[in-house]
Amino acid sequence: MGQQSQFAPDYRDSPAPLFQQVIADDPVAAPPILREYSEIDIPVARVPRDQYRSIDFAALEMERLWPRVWQLACREEQIPEVGDYVLYESPGASLIIMRSGPDDIKAFYNSCLHRGMRLCAEDSSVRKLTCPFHGFTWNLDGKLAHVPARWDFPDMRDDAMNLPEARVERWQGFVFINRDPAAPPLQAYLGHLPAHFADWSYGDRYLATVMRKTIDANWKTCIEGFVESYHLAGIHAQALPFGGDASTQYDVWPDDPHVSRFLEPTGVMSDQLPVQLSEQQILDAALSAVFVGAQVPELEAGTKARHYMAAGMRAAMGAADGVDYSTLSDAEAADAIQYSLFPNIIIFRSLGYPYVYRFLPVRDDPNRATFEFMIFKPKPADGYIPEVELVDLGEGDSFAGAGILPPWLGEIYDQDVTGLRMCQQGLRDGGDADILYSAYQEVRIRHLHQTLDRYLSDDPTDAPGRR
Ligand code: FES
Ligand SMILES: [Fe+2]
User: Fold this and answer.
1) Which residues surround ligand 1 with Cβ inside 6 Å?
2) 424: which of 217, 307, 354, 406 fits an S-S bond (Cβ 3.0–4.6 Å)?
3) In this protein, which residues make up the domain named Rieske (predicted)?
4) What is the mean pLDDT of the chain?
5) CA 354 to chain CA centroid, nearest Å
């Protein structure tokens, strides 16, 4: 029979415990935001597969989606000094994200106002922006500073030659840009994120490493492959004894078109495993997969595998970060707590997963996307923040082989990359049947498409925040 609950849809029919039941007897209780549940019915059950493979659909996204959404461009700590800039190659617009003043960041279109030359080729630091073609030069605030042979432009007015800018707003050290003057402010766009990250601030962390890999899959195929736990049995079967797939809680909120989340518990067996495991067996399986060669302790009566794993994570990350995590809840220590920000960002709020993902379409190729895997660390007390480590993974390079993630986790991402490539091949070459999404476990995908439809609508006021 279905497990009727205020914490699951009433049609749910699974013997697996709900996330809220799992955390109810955790020794260190979860904070209130993890004890919330929000379900709304999203009727988007099927979409045409052309949305994942057609040049025309990608062009529609380029015209109506990307120029109108808030996009994560970079982190503030990537441009600490005045004159530092990074390039953000957003879909359809190359932008120079410039530290124009001690507390001022601007986003200039990366193109000269003379004959259009690309102004900057790579991340750097400058006193002025000088075009490499004929030498038009701008100050860091975007005002025209110098034109060689100024006499030869008698009709040009200097005050009409400011570098064009996109909007810039910031949250917790993330720098966002928006090319649409009519878009709502970032704070409104972020929906539940500010409240849910109020005491888990990325402002206290810095971007330490970015792993970048081109994936042979549409950007939506990619993000959709990370926002549901339903694929655990198919793609990551080694995690069935402890992966918590069927116990994952999925939240979408009314009037929050850009944010969704899942709460995936650790140390809970899948309902797709044909046998019932004891807590000791769950711990044995988890530790042998996660900490190869670790001594597996005898669990004391009444202690659950997840409690042991949470304590282990607090100790391990505490030692790695030099921070006392002893009072952190078991859920925050052990579970995968993951939010998405429309259209292309995933942000974790988990001790063991200090990660943010960004997915960007590859120009003119709906079958490929760039996956940027960002790893954060707590800001050190002495304030010294090293330069971000950039790791480009080539076609044959694996996440496991990069040696940056724990080996078991690298293997998980390699499985995902293989799965996404196969999914895209099927989408591309597999005929014309519509794609189908499940009602609950894939509600975040429905949510993404519902919001996408609003941006792509013929009526521009259908986009969120435009009425
Ligand atoms: S194109 Fe930039 S100075 Fe000529
Ligand atoms: Fe996966």
Assistant:
1) 112, 114-115, 117, 131, 133-136
2) 217
3) 70-177
4) 96
5) 11
